[in-house]
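hey can u run this one w/ 1HE bound, need the structure tokens asap thx
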Amino acid sequence: MTIQIDISRYKNLAIEAHDDGVWVVTLNRPAKRNALDIDTIEELIEFFSAAPRAGVRAVVLAGSGDHFCAGLDLIEHHDQDRSPADFMHVCLRWHEAFNKMEYGGVPVIAALQGAVVGGGLELASSAHIRVMDQTAYFALPEGQRGLFTGGGATIRVTDLVGKSRMIDMMLTGRVYQGQEAVELGLAQYIVEGSSFDAALEVARKAARNLPLSNFAICSAVSHMQNMSAMDAAYAEAVVAGIVNTQPDARARLAAFADKSAARVRPNT
Ligand code: 1HE
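ok here u go:
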């Protein structure tokens, strides 16, 4: 079942489909440093709900302008003077969006530059791969703003950097950037030039895999992290039973058998 994505419906996201199945989704409020207002979150939910059934083979998630994302729209939050229940529901919509990304089964590659802060880091950490340029920096300024993370940082950022670093980032507003950020796991790639170009290259590579393999990689791994080891091993066997017998894989296996497929070699 394939569904259509009508890109004209999106106002805060600029969306572009490439012929090879890679879609570029760009946060498009550079004047607000791509701060996440509720409309942007709703658009992310809409896109990432549709993507797995719309033939999207990989997504590059980018931010327009000098910054990837400044996090929660603090002006909207201030103006709306939300009740605790209202803000809880806002956060649940963020989780809906970010869970669709992480568990949806479509590879999401974030292209990072400038500020990747607060909710912007929560968004980036929901991507499967993060590519940063030399300007990118990561921080959780919530503590200084009288706030707390609400978009999954306690889970996903802690997963990336560990509990003690996460608490330090929140208590002190500590900024990580450059090679150190890669070593901590905040990004997997750092490039000299454009993180967008590099992310596109990564996305194109991923998009050449069979969609069912990518579905398993970009859905099952995250689900299995939430299970006991026993249950995860069982689920892995079930998923492998389905993926590793897919008819579309036969040609790739045949190419290995007849020696026409590329071999795995060390980097030169
Ligand atoms: C914003 C936001 C925003 C900028 N909400 N409008 N996030 C933060 O605490 C980050 C807050 N932002 C910043 O620290 C800086 O804006 C940046 C480092 C990202 C960029 O600095 P700069 O000098 O390029 O821009 P600027 O002059 O600070 O801002 C330019 C405009 O963007 C300005 O609007 P203008 O109409 O006055 O021109 C800013 O108001 C606007 N802007 N950031 C709204 N965040 C689910 S809980 C999640 C918790 C959080 O994410 S807490 C938020 C953490």
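The pocket of 1HE is lined by residues 32-33, 35, 67, 70-75, 91, 94, 115, 117-119, 141-142, 145, 147, 149-151 (CB under 6 Å). anyway lmk if its weird
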